[in-house]
Structures are given as C-alpha cells and as structure tokens.
Amino acid sequence: MMDYPALAALAAVLRTGSFDRAADVLGVTPSAVSQRIKSLEERIGAPLIERGPPARATPAGARLRTHAEAVAMLEAQLATDMGSPRSGDRPRVRIAVNADSLATWIIP
Q: pTM of the predicted model, to two decimals?
C-alpha cells in the first residue's frame, strides 16, 4: 500500500514548485515535506523530484503524481456517493488546449 500523506506531499511540491509552499498548503513544516518525499523515494528506489527552482517531477515522480491525483478523485467521488462531500477538497482535472482556444473560450 502506498503512503498517501507522502503522495500528497509529492503532489503539493510538484503543484507549487517548492517544498516551502507545499508545506504551507499541507499545514506542515518544510522538513516534514522533505522527509515524506525522501521516504517515498527510498521506498520506490528512484528520485521523484528534480530539486531546484522550481521543483520538477522525474518520470517516476510524474507517474506517482498521476496516481495521487487519480486516488484523490476516487476518494472525492466516494465521499459524494456516501453523502459526505468534503468541503473545499475538490479534485483537479488537467486539460490541454491550444492558444487560440485558451484566448477565446476556455474558462480562466
């Protein structure tokens, strides 16, 4: 089984681009975020983040981020199905559009 707090830390670092901002989002210290990422990297056996401004995913890190986002969407759907939606915890759906569509009709 995956360490979901560590996956949340990974997703937050990659979403925000830094360990400090991820810590603010998660409500923990930057050291805690770093320790979670380190333990996840040790468990997987590969680096997950290219450290630097901004922090970027390695191929393994990108795959785990996708997994974490899929799990978050499944949990949000389960909470809704069970009648207890979590407030403020909306899943993110990534889309790709070309520049013309972005400028004319896509929602900001």
A: 0.73
CA pair distance 103, 108, nearest whole angstrom? 9
* Residues of the chain with confidence (pLDDT) below 70: 85-92, 108
Cβ neighbors of 55 (< 8 A, separation 6 or more) are 13, 14, 17, 18, 19, 49
For residues 87 and 43, what is the distance between their CA atoms, to the nearest angstrom?
Answer: 32
The rounded distance, in Å, linking the Cα atoms of 108 and 100 is 13
56 — phi, psi (to 5°)? -130, 155
Kindly give, in sequence order, each residue whose CB lies less than 8 Å from that of residue 48, ignoring residues fewer than 6 positions away: 10, 37, 40, 41, 57, 58, 60, 61, 64
